[in-house]
């Protein structure tokens, strides 16, 4: 359907040849834009409806007091349900630290949320199919859990700004006063009442509109860059420096991606174009992971709550994990 629409617009409306570079680039742009927007709207609605059952306050309540292993897995999967870029996740990260949730578990959420969410899942599926999408999701969740575990084991709580723990101590009494004393049956009945379901549906629909409003520009820029690479970038040059034959392609792509700032919307169309030009799958996906998981704006925001040494450990651990995952992807795909 989307391919036919793109072909009709390029050939019949714009009277261009698909075999020309400009015609091919426009076809790539229109096809990817319409396909991704449709899939995003459907998946964001579904995930937002599910996510309406998990407000940040409830997430913090569930994570508090859990065993670290269980809480880490929960934090990683809850990050999947949070469709945020790396910068948007920072306020929740700060809230978790203030709530007294262990540092390693908090970092697990911070890492998993931008790397693995419904947006990246939809786009990976639409471009690469379920196999790559599933492997990517599992790799991202594993990276978040392992990196969080390492950071937790390093006992770096002293590198969190002291005022955060003062806020956490002040919040404890407030949280105790605000406990929900309803029975389990009463809570279930309230959740599935007609009024609640209507409110959750409205919330999901509103989130579709708000999310696409925030991300449409990234989408168009990313697909535009991808379309340009797809038709105009010299294939021999890309394969020489980022192809599967270059052993250092993965770390180079990761290091280049770290200081950049984007999300899955902007990154994946570029990844698709790079793959079409012969760049290794692990190299391209490592580049995407680095862009989505780490960014200069995110680091600046984190500096408000944690000290430089902890930021350096976070960036180093995640970058190393992404490089290993990139090599793994190149080996199995």
UniProtKB/TrEMBL annotation:
<keyword id="KW-0812">Transmembrane</keyword>
<feature type="transmembrane region" description="Helical">
    <location>
        <begin position="132"/>
        <end position="152"/>
    </location>
</feature>
<feature type="transmembrane region" description="Helical">
    <location>
        <begin position="310"/>
        <end position="329"/>
    </location>
</feature>
<feature type="transmembrane region" description="Helical">
    <location>
        <begin position="75"/>
        <end position="97"/>
    </location>
</feature>
<keyword id="KW-0472">Membrane</keyword>
<feature type="transmembrane region" description="Helical">
    <location>
        <begin position="36"/>
        <end position="54"/>
    </location>
</feature>
<feature type="transmembrane region" description="Helical">
    <location>
        <begin position="215"/>
        <end position="233"/>
    </location>
</feature>
<keyword id="KW-1133">Transmembrane helix</keyword>
<protein>
    <submittedName>
        <fullName>Membrane protein</fullName>
    </submittedName>
</protein>
<keyword id="KW-1003">Cell membrane</keyword>
<comment type="similarity">
    <text>Belongs to the UPF0718 family.</text>
</comment>
<dbReference type="InterPro" id="IPR053166">
    <property type="entry name" value="UPF0718_permease"/>
</dbReference>
<dbReference type="GO" id="GO:0005886">
    <property type="term" value="C:plasma membrane"/>
</dbReference>
<feature type="transmembrane region" description="Helical">
    <location>
        <begin position="284"/>
        <end position="303"/>
    </location>
</feature>
<dbReference type="InterPro" id="IPR005524">
    <property type="entry name" value="DUF318"/>
</dbReference>
<dbReference type="Pfam" id="PF03773">
    <property type="entry name" value="ArsP_1"/>
</dbReference>
<feature type="transmembrane region" description="Helical">
    <location>
        <begin position="245"/>
        <end position="264"/>
    </location>
</feature>
<feature type="transmembrane region" description="Helical">
    <location>
        <begin position="103"/>
        <end position="125"/>
    </location>
</feature>
